[in-house]
Design brief:
This is Free methionine-R-sulfoxide reductase. The protein has about 170 residues and is an alpha+beta fold. It has one domain: Beta-Lactamase. It is built from 4 helices and 6 strands. Helix 1 (about 10-25) runs antiparallel to helix 2 (about 35-45) and helix 1 runs parallel beside helix 4 (about 145-160). The chain is globular and about 35 Å long.
Length: about 170
């Protein structure tokens, strides 16, 4: 059983180091992809300040399909290249958007969202999904957030048997 205490730290790097420790604890003994992604979305949602949505879209049948998440009801399917999620997946690189209202083609699942970061999940050079985090704050995500969230995704790429997701 894992604690539900919110992480408190003196600075952003210390916060993320603690978050990574908790993440590793959740992942180390779990082999089920659904449990792993569910707990990861909960861990991020409960601990990242100023976040109103955290979750995953999984690549299925040529589209991104809603996976485990925390937050309000979300878009179920996103076409590759559409919105921030589809763009990150198509480009195979992180999209950090300081103001979603200035992003051409932004898909507004929650009108309260003002900034977003999407990290593609890549296995064997193929996109298998994305980690998507939204915030009601403008310019919420910076280079430090990107670095650590990409680290979490790299670990998910290693821990999860992505061939079992269909």
């Amino acid at each position: 059983m894992h604690g539900n205490d919110k992480i408190e730290a003196s600075d952003k790097n210390s916060f993320y180091r603690e978050l990574l420790l908790q993440f590793e604890g959740l992942m180390s003994d779990e082999k089920d992809w659904l449990a792993s992604l569910s707990n990861t979305s909960a861990l991020l949602y409960q601990n990242l300040p100023h976040v109103n949505w955290a979750g995953f879209y999984l690549y299925k049948e040529g589209m991104l399909v809603l996976g485990p998440f925390q937050g309000k009801v979300a878009c179920t399917r996103i076409e590759m290249g559409k919105g921030v999620c589809g763009t990150a997946a198509r480009e195979k690189e992180t999209c950090r958007v300081l103001d979603v209202h200035k992003f051409p083609g932004h898909i507004a699942c929650d009108s309260a969202s003002n900034s977003e970061i999407v990290v593609p999940i890549i296995k064997n050079d193929a996109v298998v999904g994305v980690l998507d985090i939204d915030s009601p704050s403008l310019e919420r995500f910076d280079e430090t957030d990107q670095l650590y969230l990409e680290n979490i995704v790299k670990k998910l790429e290693e821990y999860i048997d992505w061939s079992k997701i269909s």
